[in-house]
Amino acid sequence: MTAAAVDTARKPVSMAQALGRALRDAMADDPAVHVLGEDVGALGGVFRVTDGLAKEFGEDRCTDTPLAEAGILGAAVGMAMYGLRPVVEMQFDAFAYPAFEQLISHVSRMRNRTRGAMPMPITVRVPYGGGIGGVEHHSDSSEAYYMATPGLHVVAPATVADAYGLLRAAIASDDPVIFLEPKRLYWSKADWSPDRPEQVPGIGSAVVRRAGTSATLITYGPSLPVCLEAAQAATAEGWDLEVVDLRSLVPFDEETVCASVRRTGRAVVVHESTGFGGPGGEIAARITERCFHHLEAPVLRVAGFDIPYPPPMLERHHLPGVDRVLDAVARLQWESEWTAGSERGTR
Amino acid sequence: MTVLEQPGSYRPTPPPAWQPRTDPTPLLPDPEPFRLLGTDAAADLDPELLRRLYGQLVRGRRYNTQATALTRQGRLAVYPSSTGQEACEVAAALVLQEQDWLFPSYRDTLAAVARGLDPVQALTLLRGDWHTGYDPHEHRVAPLCTPLATQLPHAVGLAHAARLKGDDVVALAMVGDGGTSEGDFHEALNFAAVWQAPVVFLVQNNGFAISVPLAKQTAAPSLAHKAVGYGMPGRLVDGNDAAAVHQVLSEAMRRARSGGGPTLVEAVTYRIEAHTNADDATRYRTDTEVEMWRAHDPIVLLERELTGRKLLDEAGMEAERQAAERMAADLRERMNQDPVLDPMDLFTHVYAEQTVQLREQADRLRAELAAAEELSPGHQEGTQR
């Protein structure tokens, strides 16, 4: 088969479908992989990600559990103790909170507690973030809570190919992975073939989605399309923006981020999560510590406001959008370059 | 047929909202705790089992007093004693088969030791040189669990996984009366019953959650009654009657092993010592109450039965006491040796592979240790407590 023939075999596939395919392939490859959660069986999950799994693998492998998140994750701990590789679906971001004690007190530290004797190869899938018109408790960006817990990996795909590749990597990982699925990208589509999935590097590597020279936008998950759109719009202003997709918040790929910022000298971190105590603060601090002498301006953040997640009719005011990103870019002290006589936006 | 499925193929339609229960096993516990010692039924008990239980109780009591003494000497950071509760601790270990799993709480180091764990390893958490001092797979003893009742869903998940694999494994999970108020207790019972997982839940009702008495913990007629709401049998037993606890737990284990699902056992006992060495029990209970329970001591009850039936004489008792002293002397000697610590272990088991950030932090600590060693050779951890 020629490369051209493979390309024509690619069809538009949604992120939700790619995630489902990743679960299916992982279950087919490894009988230790078990899916459990609320409504993951006959219904296929409220976002249909587990569609067909119970039928193909039976209810013992894809199990509708009682409605109790601590119980689900706690049971997954016991299953992992016995050598299984559970994949837990939390129905929505805010409905994962009842499982926090199991996550923080057990899942994240069981390996450490037992000096490696009891690893926890558990994947916790969390549909997260806003922008879908969800009512209260359906749109939280909870990544900062997870990031603050040593022992967890925290991953957030932004593309169809990454959704598949990173979920496979998460399930294969011997460490617990919080797998944050951007809800509003579930229905985003890309030409992609499950039979020839693109190779996605393992958890912990960021990628430059758009090369640029003026400044670096650092983002992940649902804010990636926003940043790419902003970068496109910025060309009209003479800015050539680089866009880094973190893909994984923990481990954090400092090398890729810092290499980009050293090239551009300016950085904006963009995410839906609140700014105060959010991931952007940690990222900005790391850039400042490591790239200080390359910076032409303070690292800025474009984040959700420090408010409880708003009702759906007001959420557009809360979510970082293209204009807010461009406004931050405009505040990256370009004036100093004008006074130095250099052209705007080029370095 | 898979375990969770009904006969036939995959059923996408939900079951009816209500179905009559068909299992004839009664769910409600007896109104009074089940007792054997001192009753006519005790005559049928296996003398060998009684002697075995007695030896374990005597050693268990000595273990408790030794661990408490080690705390006073600064060798343990803290010790939550199970003095007075040895019958539950010992019986929980003895009813397990080789392949079964024990899920202890922080007060249950004795059960872990009775299961075969090295006491020094069992006490690692409480000495503070690491969190879990043993490989849980070696004796199939899960890590001692400090957050209340959170180990119960683990027991359910493990038992469920074993059953899915077709393995003959039962998990016995231990929790206290206070722990029954935690959400994880209820979620674990519910999951176990829905999945018909081979689990036995042993609640040691020792009267207090630190200082709060049971009356402020629950309005239920007994903790065993809580089983009924989940559709599993609840059993109430005298927790100081080692033979009764052993029998009730054995029945529950048999039921679980044969596919009959989980059982909740409430053992009524009493915490003779304070919550830990850091607690002052005189603030919330009277000496009179403690003395009443001392008269109902598990060793006294069993000794009375054994001597009354001439199954044990003074020489036999003395032999058990001496065995217990040897165990205590060995424990004392080994606990009086300073543990060997390597601060770099802090970074070893956070992830399967260290992150770049953790490698940097490990390098920093290594440099700090090297600098300190240069300043003051031989005074680093490893020789120091």
From TrEMBL, chain A:
The keyword Oxidoreductase applies. One of its GO terms (molecular function) is magnesium ion binding. Keywords: Oxidoreductase, Pyruvate. The keyword Oxidoreductase applies. InterPro entries: THDP-binding, Transketo_C/PFOR_II, Transketolase-like_Pyr-bd, Transketolase_C. Residues 13-188 form the Transketolase-like pyrimidine-binding domain. One of its GO terms (biological process) is branched-chain amino acid catabolic process. Its EC number is 1.2.4.4. Pfam families: Transket_pyr (PF02779), Transketolase_C (PF02780). SUPFAM superfamilies: Thiamin diphosphate-binding fold (THDP-binding), TK C-terminal domain-like. Its cofactor is thiamine diphosphate. This is 3-methyl-2-oxobutanoate dehydrogenase (2-methylpropanoyl-transferring).
UniProtKB/TrEMBL annotation, chain B:
It is an enzyme of class 1 (oxidoreductase). Residues 314-375 form a coiled coil. Gene3D superfamilies: 3.40.50.970. Residues 1-31 are annotated as: Disordered. Keywords: Coiled coil, Oxidoreductase, Pyruvate, Thiamine pyrophosphate. Signal peptide: none annotated. The keyword Repeat does not apply. Its EC number is 1.2.4.1. One of its GO terms (molecular function) is magnesium ion binding. NCBIfam families: PDH_E1_alph_x. This is Pyruvate dehydrogenase E1 component alpha subunit. It comes from Streptomyces netropsis. The lineage of its organism: Bacteria, Bacillati, Actinomycetota, Actinomycetes, Kitasatosporales.
